[in-house]
Design brief:
The protein has helices at 16-23, 31-38, 78-89, 94-123, 125-129, 139-142, 146-163, 178-201, and strands at residues 41-43, 52-56, 60-62, 71-73. It is mainly α. Strand 2 (52-56) and strand 3 form a beta hairpin. Helix 4 (94-123) runs antiparallel to helix 7 (146-163), helix 4 packs parallel to helix 8 and helix 7 packs antiparallel against helix 8.
Length: 207
C-alpha cells in the first residue's frame, strides 16, 4: 500500500496590512496607532464619527466598529504610503514613540502591583465570598448581606487596578497616574478587609 504523503505546508501570503506595516517599519499591531497619530484616518462609517451607536448593557453606546474613537484607518494609496514614509523619516513620529515608550514603562512597573491587588482580594474577603457553603443560600438575602457588599467593593478595586494597566483604558485613566490608582485600590481593599474582620470579631453574622 502506497503511503499518503503529508501535504506541503503552505505559507499564507502577507496581507495588505502586513505589507503596509513592513513598508512603514513597524509591526501590524503597531500600525493603527502610528497611522492614527499621523492623521491617516477617516470618520467611522457606522457611527458617522461620533463614536456612539446603539446601547447595550456591557458597553453602553460605544461603537464596535471604531471602538468609540469615531475614526477608522484611511485606505492607504501608494502616494500616501510614500508620504507617510517621508514623514516618519523626518521624525514626525518621535512624540508618539516617546509617549508609547513611557506608557510601556509605566505598565511594566505597575502590572506586578495590580496582580498583587488581585491576590489580596483572593486571600481576603473574596476568599470567604467564594466558600462553597455560600451555594444554596437565599439569593435575595445574600445580595444585601455585608459580605456581598464588602466583596463587591473589593472586587471593584481589583478591577480598577487592572484597568489602570490596560492599553484599552489608557485613554480614560492617565497612564502616569496608574501607579497612584493601583496604590489607592490596595489601600481601599485593606480597609475593606479590616472592616470585615472587625465586623466578624464583634460577633455579627457573616451573611
Amino acid at each position: 500500500m502506497t503511503p499518503i504523503a503529508a501535504p506541503a505546508t503552505e505559507t499564507a501570503a502577507p496581507s495588505a496590512l502586513d505589507r503596509l506595516a513592513v513598508a512603514l517599519g513597524c509591526t501590524r499591531k503597531q500600525l493603527p496607532g502610528r497611522l492614527t497619530f499621523l492623521g491617516y484616518t477617516r470618520p467611522c462609517g457606522r457611527c458617522g464619527g461620533s463614536g456612539q451607536f446603539s446601547y447595550c448593557r456591557s458597553h453602553g453606546t460605544r461603537c464596535f466598529d471604531c471602538g468609540g474613537s469615531g475614526k477608522r484607518l484611511a485606505v492607504m494609496t501608494v502616494r500616501m504610503v510614500r508620504e507617510a514614509q517621508a514623514r516618519i523619516a523626518a521624525g514626525e513620529l518621535a512624540p508618539y514613540l516617546a509617549k508609547a515608550a513611557a506608557v510601556n514603562a509605566a505598565r511594566r512597573s505597575v502590572e506586578p502591583a495590580a496582580k498583587a491587588v488581585w491576590a489580596a482580594w483572593s486571600a481576603g474577603v473574596g476568599a470567604e465570598y467564594m466558600v462553597p457553603s455560600r451555594r444554596g443560600l437565599d439569593l435575595d438575602a445574600f445580595v444585601t448581606s455585608p459580605l456581598f457588599n464588602a466583596n463587591s467593593l473589593a472586587g471593584d478595586c481589583a478591577t480598577t487596578a487592572s484597568d489602570a494597566c490596560s492599553d484599552a483604558k489608557y485613554g480614560k485613566i492617565t497612564y502616569l497616574r496608574a501607579a497612584e490608582i493601583v496604590a489607592d485600590c490596595a489601600e481601599i481593599m485593606a480597609a475593606v478587609d479590616a472592616a470585615w474582620a472587625a465586623w466578624k470579631a464583634d460577633g455579627n453574622p457573616a451573611y
